[in-house]
Amino acid sequence: MIVYDNRGVPQTLTSGNQLERIEKSLVGMLGMEYDPSSFFSRTSEEFYCLALVEIECINLISSMERNQLLKANDIINLYKTKDAIQQMSDRDLLLFEGIESWINRKYEEAHDKFSEILLSYPKDILTIFATHMLEFHMGWTRQMKDTISKVLSYWDKKDNLYGYLKGIESFCLEENGMYEECFGAAQEALSINKKDIYAIHSICHYFYETGQYNEGAKWMEDNIEDWKDNKYMRIHVWWHYALFKLYNLDFGKLTEVYKSEIRRKNDPLGMEDLDAASLLWRVKLLDRDQDFDEKELLENWEQYTENTFYCFNDLHALLVYFATKEEEKANNLIEKSINQNCSKYYRGIITSTFEGLKFFSEGKYKEAYTALENILKSSSALGGSNAQRDVFEMTAIEAAVRAGDVSKANYLINNGRCFKHDSPLKRHYVNKILNNEKKGVSI
């Protein structure tokens, strides 16, 4: 049976009372507080409750982890039967096709399917979330803002789950450089639900992008009860806190947070190590990684080459391999990652990034700078956020410093992203360059 929810979206159910569970599942997914699939089972009675199945599959593929996508693929195949298809609405068919396209790395095709749904159902929060996550992972920054702009005018503040939409909007605005608008949207979301993790996350980005590192850390401390127990975003939000401490050169607090929070995983075997890898590399650039257990982190990436799927994850695995001098693993991953799924355009960007990191690990700093500097303006293609990708600019600056190329180091410090605001970390690099000049260090 098809029942329309309170936002006018058709939901394929087996009984009308499942609508309440669908809302709870959506809250779990949007708020990232609990597993949305915990609200349903594969009983014969619920087999054709496609609405719940769709939430589970979107949640799985949004992780961009190979094992999770394989689970989603198994579920999709289970429902590709004549009887199941007969139960589907046009929206269900498009959503299933979009999910399949995503699994098969046909990302533009998946985006087209999701966008077609939103033309008919602009209040379809599940499809909005799926579209947003796909755009985020692909680095389609402008499209993130465009998608939200197109659907937002159809929503009313009284609509259920409206606050989560504003939280998503705030992040899209931030990534497009609209920082004050981001802050406003996030504040509106938090006025509805003070634990809206996407809005909290956006405000962390806001403070980072506006250079308010002390204020950002203070805001996070003042509101810690609203985010510290969020199951699926807790580690990443702690990473933002650690980043504020990095910019203030507070390595004591940074190391404490790394050990007590960023390495406190939900699942010891789970893939929750990207933030740890990124932070380790940053402190290693500054030669302040003595208190970091690199081997412990490596253990979590030992088998990763068998599970490679997404370039952004691959890059973080490489940071760990290079940090621990696992050159064979790094080379195997580079070869596999470049060949598995890239168009010619993406392959060029990814290859230059891999080469830059490899040159840096080999002490070929001039070559590392050249390779990394070439990709900085197009690095969104690597996926992730602007703040996350700043690690590559910081590596390029450190490469220029180590190569003794003062002009190139100064150019990125003065014209790049990661040091556009004053901070103790920026002053550290400026002083490092001045000391090199006094010593007459040059290429």
Radius of gyration: 22 Å
Strand order of the largest sheet: 1-2
Mean pLDDT: 92
Number of beta-strand segments: 2
Could you give the order of the helices and strands? EEHHHHHHHHHHHHHHHHHHHHHHH
Annotate the secondary structure layout.
Elements: E1 2-4, E2 10-12, H1 18-31, H2 50-61, H3 66-78, H4 82-86, H5 90-103, H6 107-120, H7 125-138, H8 141-152, H9 162-175, H10 179-192, H11 197-209, H12 213-222, H13 234-247, H14 251-262, H15 274-285, H16 294-299, H17 311-323, H18 327-341, H19 344-361, H20 365-373, H21 386-403, H22 406-415, H23 424-439
Antiparallel strand pairs: 1-2
What features would you describe in this structure?
By secondary structure, the chain is mostly helical. The chain has 3 domains: 1-149, Alpha Horseshoe (Serine Threonine Protein Phosphatase 5, Tetratricopeptide repeat); 161-249, Alpha Horseshoe (Serine Threonine Protein Phosphatase 5, Tetratricopeptide repeat); 265-443. The protein is built from 23 helices and 2 strands. A two-stranded antiparallel ribbon has the order 1-2. α9 (162-175) runs antiparallel to α10 and α19 packs across α21 (386-403). The protein is globular, with a radius of gyration of 22 Å. The mean pLDDT is 92.
